[in-house]
Write a structure and sequence with these properties.
The chain is mostly helical. 81% of the residues lie in helices and 0% in strands. The protein is globular. The mean pLDDT is 83. It holds the Pfam family DUF308.
């Protein structure tokens, strides 16, 4: 258990970096809500790709010290896959983009909730990772339930989601750092 706590606290920068990227992405989405679909696709693709790469690096680098490192790997691979898909299909319709974002958010959220459950006995503040996961799932479900929302609404929803999730990850990172 002490080894897991040391590993987690030594790598507090992983959720910090993910949180900072999410907050920056959220501010951009809120500042320019009338973005064209192409720009929105590229912003989402860049966010998902960077988030995925950081998660994969963290998973691979510490796979020998974290029991369920593969949860981070799954989260990262999903982010990379969805990020790359958006770059290869820039002319995608708003509805298909919405499905990509919803699927990515739901699967990432499930991975984060599972990771939080694993960490509940090892660290204090694991609920922040669980919160980020639950918010991701709720965000994805909301996109599926209300697909008729316009791009302006989608941009605001994405921005708010990214800001809240990013702040939760940043707070988690500093809690991990203090271990």
């Amino acid at each position: 258990m002490a080894s897991l706590i040391g590993t987690i606290s030594d790598h507090w920068w992983v959720p910090l970096l993910r949180g900072i990227v999410a907050v920056l992405f959220g501010f951009m989405a809120l500042a320019w809500p009338v973005l064209t679909l192409g720009v929105l696709v590229l912003l989402f693709g860049a966010y998902a790709l960077v988030d995925g790469v950081v998660a994969v690096i963290g998973a691979v680098r510490y796979r020998d010290r974290v029991e369920r490192w593969w949860l981070w790997l799954i989260t990262g691979v999903l982010g990379i896959v969805f990020g790359v898909l958006t770059f290869f299909w820039p002319g995608v319709t708003a509805l298909v983009l919405l499905w990509f974002i919803a699927g990515w958010a739901i699967l990432t959220g499930i991975s984060e909730v599972l990771a939080a459950v694993q960490f509940r006995k090892a660290i204090e503040g694991e609920w922040l990772l669980g919160l980020a996961g639950v918010l991701s799932v709720l965000f994805g479900v909301a996109l599926l339930v209300w697909p008729g929302a316009g791009l302006l609404s989608l941009a605001w929803l994405i921005g708010a989601y990214a800001l809240v999730t990013g702040v939760a990850l940043v707070v988690l990172a500093f809690r991990l750092r203090s271990l």
